[in-house]
Amino acid sequence: MNTLTNSNQSKLYICTSELLKRYGITKCTLINWRNNRDFPQPIVKAHGRSNSRYGVKAVATWEENNGMFDALSIDPLLPTNSRFSIIAHSL
């Protein structure tokens, strides 16, 4: 996995293919979510066969706000203490 990380080794980005696998969706569904369900736009847009990159914090906040943990039985992208700081900043 070639995901960029910061000095604390936590992920900064998640690529399109990781999101598709995480949610069990197609690329068309992801585009639909971006257009109609306020899914975050990619930070780095790819062209052709390469993957776009999405900010992990933005995706984690979207998941929390849209009940994705319960709906899909997925684990949070960020450690619990990081998720709470994201939620606090969004209030």
TrEMBL record:
Give the protein's recorded name: DNA-binding protein
Highest lineage ranks of the organism? Bacteria, Pseudomonadati, Pseudomonadota, Gammaproteobacteria, Moraxellales
